[in-house]
Design goal:
The chain is globular. Strand 5 (204-209), helix 8 (212-219) and strand 6 (234-237) form a beta-alpha-beta unit. The strands form 2 sheets. It has a 7-stranded mixed β-sheet, with helices on both faces. It folds into 2 domains: 19-51 and 290-379, Aspartate Aminotransferase, domain 1 (Alpha-Beta Complex), CATH 3.90.1150.10; 53-286, 3-Layer(aba) Sandwich (Aspartate Aminotransferase, domain 2), CATH 3.40.640.10. The chain has 13 helices and 11 strands. Helix 2 (74-87) runs parallel beside helix 10 and helix 12 packs across helix 13. The longest helix has 20 residues, at 290-309. The chain has 380 residues and is α/β, with parallel strands linked by helices. Keywords: Pyridoxal phosphate. Residues 43-327 form the Aromatic amino acid beta-eliminating lyase/threonine aldolase domain. It comes from Tersicoccus solisilvae. It holds the Pfam family Beta_elim_lyase.
């Protein structure tokens, strides 16, 4: 099936040393610069990138011998220890197949059958998951328009009302995305303010962390600092956009939530019999600093891209570049000619806004070639 461009707004507690968060030199290049024909890198999505070689090696390593199925394997056990170092204890991690599954299972664990979720209009759960939260999860989404994809306590209050009214789905959870679908990043203080606000109202806070590593690279903080320590109740913990072949995890910290999750995961068809292959990938990514160096690299390439296109006449940047995404408005004809050379998606076809994404394997040469091509098309 043809992968069509986007045409709608929206898409998609270990301690670390200061050196680990030092800026990545843009002279460092990801492996795989010499690509065969038909395999050129694009700027459409970090999902387009291949599997990081260290992750692929981990899959091969996990393929030796027999392991107990359905999560009783040594790799899934090891994953609990690894994420416990990042987030503190207790931490409970439940590997799943994909991000949509992680979001649905996470939100179901936080809500009763009559519960509703407040989220940004641009949230992945609202725009890009084909009603899975509603149809599979049985959840009502209460959306709020935002200029930058970020919720605030004041914006949440536009939908957080009506408790006790049997005629209205009860707003009992808030879902935020880090980094957001608009490429913006919440600070830890902003997330803490949201968590305090919703907890005072008897609500829970979910964080869609498909690009959580990119946020950590931006903030210069460990993963727990702006999640568990900031009051987040459940995380859709990402990996695919940062070098995994497939797989994410639902991460919670409350033993009571952890009690329900095995049943929800199975019910939602997210229980892998050979779970070791998901867990081994996540261990490879998060046991050392691979997750961080990969995210830092993607972010650095986005900054290079922004710096290259910003001076060009005919390019209007629309959002700050706080992770690995660049948003801009282009003339439609320029965008179409450029897209014939480098694939990327429209973000809002009505305004001409496009999105350019960098990945763990984007190189300086990729960025410079894209900037040069854009300059040529603008000059035509």
């Amino acid at each position: 099936m043809t992968d069509l461009p986007r045409v709608a707004h929206g898409s998609e507690a270990s301690e670390h040393s200061e050196a680990a968060f030092a800026p990545l030199s843009t002279s460092e290049q990801a492996p795989g610069s010499d690509l065969p024909p038909g395999h050129a890198r694009t700027f459409a999505s970090d999902n387009y990138a291949g599997v990081h070689p260290e992750v692929l090696d981990a899959v091969v390593g996990a393929n030796a011998g027999h392991q107990i199925s359905y999560g009783e394997d040594e790799y899934t056990e090891r994953l609990q220890e690894v994420l416990g170092r990042h987030f503190g204890t207790p931490t409970f991690a439940f590997p799943v197949f994909n991000g949509t599954g992680a979001n649905v299972v996470s939100l179901q664990s936080l809500l009763p059958r009559w519960g509703a979720v407040v989220c940004a209009e641009t949230a992945h759960i609202n725009v890009d998951e084909n009603a899975a939260p509603e149809r599979v999860g049985g959840l009502k989404l209460l959306t709020v328009p935002t200029p930058d994809g970020k919720l605030t306590p004041e914006l949440i209050d536009r939908q957080a009302w009506g408790w006790g009214d049997e005629h209205r789905a009860q707003p009992l959870a808030v879902s935020i995305t880090q980094t957001t679908e608009m490429g913006t990043c919440y600070t830890g203080d902003e997330i803490r303010a949201i968590a305090d606000h919703v907890h005072e109202r008897g609500m829970k806070l979910h964080l869609d962390g498909a690009r959580l590593a990119n946020a950590a690279a931006t903030l210069g903080e460990g993963l727990g600092a702006f999640t568990r320590d900031a009051g987040v109740d459940a995380i859709s913990f990402g990996g695919t956009k940062n070098g995994l072949m497939f797989g994410e995890a639902v991460v919670v910290f409350d033993p009571e939530l952890a009690t329900a999750l095995p049943y929800l995961r199975k019910m939602d068809m997210q229980l892998a019999s050979k779970m070791r292959y998901i867990s081994a990938q996540l261990v490879a990514l998060y046991e050392g600093d691979l997750w961080l160096t990969s995210a830092r690299h993607a972010n650095a390439m986005a900054r290079r891209l922004r710096a290259g296109v910003e001076p060009l006449d005919g390019v209007r940047l629309t959002q700050p570049t706080q992770a690995n995404a660049v948003f801009a408005v282009l003339d439609r004809d320029v965008a179409e000619r450029l897209r014939a050379r480098f694939r990327f998606y429209d973000w809002d076809e009505h305004t001409g806004e496009v999105r350019w994404m960098c990945s763990w394997d984007t190189t300086e040469a990729d960025v410079d070639a894209f900037v040069a091509a854009l300059a040529e098309e603008l000059a035509r």
